[in-house]
Amino acid sequence: MSVGYQAPRLRTSGGLRDRVMRREGTLRRLDWVLILAVLALSVLGSLMVWSATQSKPALVGADPTAYLKRNIINLAIGLVLGAATTLFDYRALRAYAPVVYVASVIGLLAVLSPLGSTINGAHSWIVLPGGQSIQPAEFAKVALVVGLAMVLSEKRDGEDEPRDIDVLQALVLAAVPLGLIMLQPDLGTGLVIGFLILGMIAVSGAPARWVVGLIAAVVLGGFVVVQGGVLQDYQVKRLTSFVNPSADQKGAGYNTAQARIAIGSGGVTGYGLFNGPQTNGGFVPEQQTDFIFTVAGEELGLVGAGGLVGLLGLVLWRGSRIASRAPDLFGRLVAVGVVCWFAFQAFENIGMCLGIMPVTGVPLPFISYGGSSTFANLMAVGLLLNVHQGRYA
Amino acid sequence: MSERSGLRLVVLQVLVVSLLATLLGRLWFLQVLVSDRYKGFADANTVRQVVTPAVRGQILDDQGRPLARNRTAMVVSVNRVVMDKEPDGGKALVTRLAGLLRKPQAELWNRTRLCGPESKIIGCWRGSPYQPIPITDQADSTAAQQILERREDFPGVNAELTAIREYPAPLGANAAHLIGYLGPVTDAELAKRSGSGAKGATDLQQTDQTGRAGLEAQYDDLLRGTPGVRKVAVDIAGKVANEVSDQPSVPGNYLVTSLDSKVQAVTEQALAEAIRNARTKGDPNKRGKTFTADSGAAVVMDVRTGRVVAMASYPDYDLKVWDNGLSAAENTALTAPSSNYPLISRATQGDFAPASTFKVVSTSAIAKAGYPLGASYDCPSSYTVGNRRISNYESEGYGVISLQRALEVSCDTVWYKIAYEQWLKDGGLGPKKPADIFITMAKAYGLGKRTGIDLPDENSGRVIDRAYKKETWAKKKTIWCARAVKEKATATTEHDRLVAAIDQENCDTYYQYRAGDAVNFAIGQGDTVVTPLQMARVYSAVANGGTLWTPQLATAELRPDGTVVRRFAPKKAGTLPVSAQTLAFLRQSLTGVTTVGTGKGPFLGFPLAAVPVASKTGTGEVAGKDSTSWFTSFAPSNAPQYAVVMMVSQGGTGSGISGPGVRKIYEALYGISGSTVTPAKAAIPGVVPPTALPRVTPDGTVIAPRSTAPAAPASPGPASTAVAATAALTVDPRASTRSRGGGVA
Predict the structure, then answer these.
(1) Contact B75, B159 (CB under 8 A)
(2) Local confidence band at A227 (pLDDT 50, 70, 90 cut-offs)
(3) What is the pLDDT of residue A58?
(4) Which of B16, B24, B42 sits opposite A265 (nearest CB)?
(5) Most buried among B158, B593, B639, B703, by the most CB within 10 A?
(6) Which 284-303 residues of chain A touch chain B by CB within 8 A?
């Protein structure tokens, strides 16, 4: 399935079947723990999406499984994309990084052009003629992971670690999509990308001043953004409602209050799938996307929601294991980028549902309904598997 | 790859693990530690209560006639919360409603206003603003249909069939002061009662009505029942998804009372007539002089149980005024000073000097102190106590007479002399362990204390004793002293100087128990006051041989299906410290009052041989006002069954005004017309109060109890021995007087 280059050391005496099934074949070089964890999360996510939408005719119309069906289609497409990413030649990834990067920047520019649409206050979408909508920012994360890894791992004069000029180059590279995303504005994705950049630069071995400086910049930037009127009113309200959730119960604080009611009332074992009164009554808004975790909390209780966090932990563990065993710095940075992305996005999303993080609309990886994010997440898993394969290369 | 990279990767891994641990910790906090709180919030979100008010239990009289029941009416109510959201505060809405219901706009508007502490709005709403406010129960079905169909014109307005309390006044018995009325529950009551957990306290709902006076208030818990609560799960739009629980309403229980509507109606009419006579025809004893007769009361008590058969108070009012909220005119009629406060029950809340009716207490006191009942006593026209000369009523002297005669003619000077002697014996102004025989006996008869009748807000009356005088002096002396100084300085007439002298005397020595206090007390004058109900109990105790009952209206609690929940047994409050001989002497003397004494006039032509009546008149002098007319009695005096007491404030003499009223009541009780007694025509079938309860059949029909045959008195004891003694004597009272010396005393 590899496109373009052939892996030189691969023994190519047999056919495709032989290649895949051999001792060192593709299937055996996959991280099956990671794959099973991701599949389990995807199944769980489908059930959650189903439960969150089945009782809401306004969303699903006459067919209670409408969202479930669409989610399964998304997953199928995502798995194909993930598999393609997995099988893509490891070395070729680097070569294609600039292409992917440029494509994603174009996508982000398209959003800001008249092609883009506003959904829930964020101008983040391109609605296709078929009614499908895509969110280029999700794909930008994939592009940035690969692009930054390429820049930061480019060896010059035999040095093992990126020089200041490389870091600077990486930052400039990152600044373009980040800036475009903040213009939409999509604060949540911006934060995820910020964390991703920080993690990759830190693990690249760049001088400590960069790491410290970036952390300081993020803190300062956050302060300026909130206080300095850079954010839209609704964003400030969301953020401050997190600090003081009871201030505006019916307005901005309403979502988080309802989310906590759903999760808290679930108790240890939950009400059972499809049986959550808050979920069925439609009290939690955006429940199939941003607040999907509340379905798990209410219906599956501590057992199910904790298990979900555990599965995410498993994915992150496998991801960081792949990073530490990566064949080269490029592979390691790709894996680190994906781990940082998943880790922070999951923390931000679940933390928001639990009332310990501000409300910023990011989806919960593998669980939330949404085509673009599903595709991007599975492609990211594909990147991890690709790096994993690289060990054997 | 550098070592630094590996190290930082480890740091990153630690960071990720700590992020996940944070999430799990928070999850554990929400779902384990504080989960119950959030379950509560979740229920508040999704569970709505639909409250169905319980049907309130009926109040029945002794024959099962409903004194209070329910009818169904089309009630139109408005929702204040919705109304306040209208741009004009709902003015246009009320105007539209007024047009539809054909009612004055202002009246309906007032109905929707909330009563504040200082509210002057007539008909304002006393309940919670979050409860639908009823504005009329007289809507016809066309109007109701319009309201329900034109939702856009009538937002928040509802029309539905509702159970409305109704007071049918059977046989014309009003009994407003006894039955009471209802009012919407207040927020304060809701807060107090919810979760109080008090025994018998049912949970109040915002839509509830609670008793505000009379039996409705006294037995509110029994009558109210439990409202039905249906809990339904709703979605965010308020649409009902499913039923969570359904607790049907439990209707309130029935209260059976000892009141008899027929006797009650007669009692009310007799009282009203007595007052009318005092105002128009005047007092025959006073050559037709008319009186103010501002108010009055009458009580009919079963002396064998203390149960109240009838109790009237004048002025009264029609309970129907509460049906639709008060109109301005009705409000004035109930509360303006000119109306003389018809809401106050004079029978239980009126304080009046007992005057000569008190002499049964005084007689008991001196008998106990050792004065022989058979001896003769001097009854001069006046008696000098210290330096004050006090006269007999109308300054009449009777010479040396028996004690019975002294009671029959209501001689005061006999009591003055004895009271003065006792006062001196107690140490006069320097008391040494005073016996205070009259005060002690008055308290033993239950005066100065609430009788404990099952009605709210009863007055205790007042017995002026030494402690009372000391306390009052401590409280009021500065006022009296200051007033005396001022009055002396400005006094111009003799009257002014007298007033000043009284204030000066009070300022100096009110704390003392003076001779004047003692002698006044012995004849029921002075500051000592009683309620008519207390006097009915005093005479019941004399009649029944010394048992002081706690007056009671309730006889039983029934379930709506007719099963008896409990019977209210007669409650004994105490036994008089009076010998059987003394009580027999009193019954005999009081019988004489009706045949040859001050009570003779009103009972001329009454068949006393068949129904001998024992009575006592009282004419209480009130400074600056017409005198209080009392007539206290019981009958038949040879086997007492009923005590009947009537009092007319500023009504003239006891025998001239109240006496004829009491006679009317006896005529009804015994089926007397002229001088013929027809037991079949008695107000209560079987003449005596029924011992059986009216039966409520499961379909709600009430069947009167089978009448109790006029059998021999149920309880032997002091009463029946006394009966034997008096029975032989009543044929010729004078003969009995003669025989008394050896026989009874």
Answers:
(1) yes
(2) low
(3) 78
(4) B42
(5) B593
(6) 297, 301-302
Q: Testing the interface with A: which of B31, B41, B46 to mutate, by most A Cβ within 10 A?
A: B31
CA closest to B41 among chain A residues: A261
Output the average pLDDT for chain A. Answer: 84
Asked if B472 and B510 touch (Cβ cutoff 8 Å), the reply is yes
Residue B1 has pLDDT above 70, yes or no: no
pLDDT band of A24, cuts 50, 70, 90: low
Tell me the chain A residues in contact with residue B245 when contact means C-beta distances shorter than 8 Å: none
pLDDT band at A96 (very low <50, low <70, confident <90, very high): confident
Q: Is B23 in Cβ contact with A347 (below 8 Å)?
A: yes
DSSP per position, B500-534:
HHHHHHHHHHTTS--HHHHHHHHTT-TT-BB-HHH
Structure tokens at A83: 């598999």
* pLDDT of res. B309: 97
The SS3 call for residue B74 is strand
- Chain B residues with CB-CB distance to A267 below 8 A: 31-32, 35, 39
Q: Are B733 and B585 in contact (CB under 8 A)?
A: no
Q: At residue A310, does pLDDT exceed 70?
A: yes
Q: Report, as an integer, the average pLDDT of B181-208.
A: 66
Amino acid at A1: M
Question: Tokens in use for A66?
Answer: 């409408």
* Residue B71: other Cβ atoms inside 10 A: 11
List the single residue in B15, B23, B32 with the smallest CB-CB distance to A309: B23
Interface residue A157 vs chain B (CB under 8 A) = no
Residue A244 has pLDDT above 60, yes or no: no
Sequential DSSP letters for B142-210 = HHHHHHHH-TTTSTTEEEEEEEEEE---GGG---HHHH--EEEPPHHHHHHHTT---TT-PPP-TT-EE
**pLDDT attached to residue B200:** 40
Please write the tens of the pLDDT for every residue from B479-495: 999 999 998 888 888 88
DSSP letter at A360?
A: -
What distance in Å separates residue A215's CA from the closest CA in chain B? 14
* Residue numbers in A near B241 (CB within 8 A): 280-281
Joined tokens for residue B70:
């329910």
Select the residue from A154, A265, A312 to test the B interface by mutation, using most B Cβ atoms within 10 A. Answer: A265
Tokens of A135: 């969110």
CA distance B343 to B326: 14
The H or E element that residue B618 is part of is strand B614-620
Rounded Cα–Cα distance for residues B208 and B419 (Å): 56
Residue B84's pLDDT band, with cuts at 50, 70 and 90, is confident
Q: Which residue bears the tokens 């029921």?
A: B524
| Cis-peptide into A177, omega within 30 deg | no
User: Could A202 and B8 be called an inter-chain contact, meaning their C-beta atoms sit closer than 8 Å?
Assistant: yes
Q: Which residues of B touch A340 (CB under 8 A)?
A: 12
Please check the confidence at residue A294 and state whether its pLDDT lies above 50: yes
What is the length of chain A? 393
Q: How many CB pairs under 8 A join A and B?
A: 140
Q: Taking CB atoms and an 8 Å limit, are A161 and B4 in contact across chains?
A: yes
DSSP-assigned letters across all residues of B431-495: -SS---HHHHHHHHTTTTS----SSSS----B---HHHHHHHHHHHHHHHHHHHHHHHHH--SHH
Q: What is the DSSP string of A208-271?
A: HHHHHHHHHHHHHHHHHHHHTT-S-HHHHHHHHHHHSTTTTTTTHHHHHHHHHHHHHHHTTT-S
What the block records as the tokens of A131 is 């009614």
